[in-house]
Amino acid sequence: MSSKDSKNPAPKGTEDQKDDVLATLHNPARDKNSGQVWPIFLLIVAVSIGWIVKDPDLRRGLGQITGFHAIEPLVEQVINKEFLVTLHGTYTSSCTQRVMLAAYEKELEIEMKVVDMAARQHKTPEHLDLQPFGQIPLLEINPETYVYESRAIAHYLERRWPSRGTSFALDNTTTSFVYHDQALSFEAFDFDPAAAAIFKEAVMKPRTSKAVDEAALQTAVALFEEKMDGYERILSQRTFLGGNLTLADLYHLPLGTKIIDAGHGSALTDSKKRPHVAKWWSALYGRPSWQAVLKDIANWEEEQRREKEERENAEASSTSSQVSSASSALSTASSSISKSMAAEESGKKHHGIFH
């Protein structure tokens, strides 16, 4: 120690006080709990982002508070695109309606690219490259990836957005999975063929000006009622075919609604003969998702009606214009002939006076 240091020794306790101050500062390297804090913080951030994405009112409120409301339209556009599905099909197709129904249950927006079936657009090489059977609907995931078959598309939407909208997740029990698979089988192999036979005779044949086979129609109705008797026995023990609500239950709505509208679906609605079936059908039919599909169909039909009316008015106007032009030309020609005849008559009189 130097003589200077020996003359001015450090006050007692100074080094100890310095160590105490440093000890009060947070040092992650010495903090045993530091590694546990960050995962919790990140989880809170992730949950908050999830809420913001799911709740538009929350997005708008946070935008106003933070001053970022000016970019809200951009955020909405990005989020909405995430929940937008592009569907190739037709509004009147039962299979397309099945996918629309599933999309609305998952609270998704639908961009419909209408396939012109009358022009056989579904049989073009371009469509066959995407759907090997030349059928609809077709879900466009991106320009390179498509999913076809309506039931497969609906299940894709459920798996793609499992926690959005209605969840069709199954309980992790053997019974739950068995009931679910049974329900899918009921719809595809019992309900659909019987209802399709009624639809063919009662709807498609009249629509295409073909004679209805009354014997075939009555056979189809009898078979459908027999199937609904089986449904009544099942639904007397369960609220839905799969126990809980499943996509299989919802798949019945498009074709079932069509045969009811055609006057041959009373087996679904007769509460005296089949009370459990009628209650089940009423619960399905009243779902907001199906009402949204029906609204889309009505809007599209109204749009088609207006377009047809505009075409007819344009054609009538064009025909009227052509008739008017022809009439005007005829009138002009008639006037010219009259003037010519008058001039000729005048010439004859003039010739008689001077000769």
Keywords:
66% helix, Glutaredoxin, Glutathione S-transferase Yfyf (Class Pi), Chain A, domain 2, 4 strands, 14 helices
Q: How would you describe the shape?
A: elongated
**N→C terminal distance:** 163 Å
* Top-tier CATH class of the domain at 174-293: Mainly Alpha
Strand content: 5-15%
Main β-sheet, spatial strand arrangement: 2-1-3-4
Structural class: mainly alpha
Assembly type: single chain
Number of E strands: 4
* Main beta-sheet annotation: 4 strands, mixed
How would you portray this structure in words?
This protein is mainly alpha-helical and about 350 residues long. Among the domains are: about 85-160, 3-Layer(aba) Sandwich (Glutaredoxin); about 175-295, Glutathione S-transferase Yfyf (Class Pi), Chain A, domain 2 (Up-down Bundle). The protein is about 65% helix and about 5% strand. The chain has helices at about 5, 15-25, 35-55, 55-65, 70-80, 95-105, 125-130, 150-160, 175-205, 215-235, 245-250, 255-260, 275-285, 290-355; strands at about 85-90, 110-115, 140, 145-150. Strands 2-1-3-4 form a 4-stranded mixed sheet. Helix 6 (about 95-105) links the parallel strand 1 and strand 2. Helix 9 runs antiparallel to helix 10 (about 215-235) and helix 10 (about 215-235) packs across helix 13. The longest helix is centred in the last third of the chain and has 67 residues, at about 290-355. The model is unreliable at about 70-80 (pLDDT under 50).
